[in-house]
Amino acid sequence: MYIKLFNTDRKILLSDNVFNVKFNNSLVHQVIKSYKNNKRKGNSCQKSRSEVSGSNKKPWRQKGTGRARSGSIRSPIWRSGGVCFASKPNKYNNKINKKVYRLALKMILSKLFQLYNNIYILDNFLIKKPRTKCFISYFKFIKLYKCLIIVDKLDNNLLLSSRNLYTFKVCDISHMSIIDLISFKSIVFNLNSIKIIEKRLLNENYKL
Questions:
Q1: Helix/strand/coil for 119
Q2: Rounded Cα distance, 176 and 66, in Å
Q3: Are 149 and 171 in contact, with CB atoms under 8 Å apart?
Q4: Could you identify which of 2, 92, 107, 158 might form a hypothetical disulfide with 11, taking C-beta atoms 3.0 to 4.6 angstroms apart as the criterion?
Q5: pTM here?
């Protein structure tokens, strides 16, 4: 498939095996759900009677004292004792096969390119100064006010000038995530990033 570069007459050829894959809603949903679950951390943690510090010696003899029998000061019924049914961190990890993840990424990119009004491929763009004003004026020129910018190499000027703007996100290819791709309505690629993404997705031995 041929895609026209933004604001030019040039066209580039992209592989149909990457950018023209039939969309499978259930597969993409499965991968996104697994991605979100793997980000979760079960932070709730309490100490049981075996983990609480303190002596395991019987406080007093079983009979003859007039007091209730007790086996340990770490008992849950004692102050500063352990918790009866102590909660532990849950593991939400959900494994997804590499081939499935790779296919889901192809499907999302294909869907984005089918909605061509939201995809912009620029030959190259440079921010001359690390200033937010320069960044805004550049993207205001191409009438973009909220988008994801994916580049092959992070430019320091680009990163510094965009970090105060919550409606823009800049990342390189290695930090490109499925959640970002579906979260932004408009996505800007530079030409090198598109070529590298295509090459990596066609090479099944390459680890994403």
A1: strand
A2: 69
A3: yes
A4: 2
A5: 0.79
- Rounded Cα distance between 146 and 186, Å, is 7
What tokens does 31 get?
């991968």
3-state secondary structure of 3: strand
- Provide the token pair at 55: 């002596």
Closest CA to 72 of 85, 63, 59: 59
The closest of 99, 103, 109, 101 to 19, measured between CA atoms, is 109
Cα separation, 146 vs 67, whole angstroms? 71
Q: Which residues contact 17 (CB under 8 A, 6 or more apart)?
A: 106, 202
Mean pLDDT per 10-residue segment, the chain (208 residues): 77 86 93 90 89 92 93 92 92 88 92 81 81 84 82 87 89 88 88 89 77
Residues present in the chain in total: 208
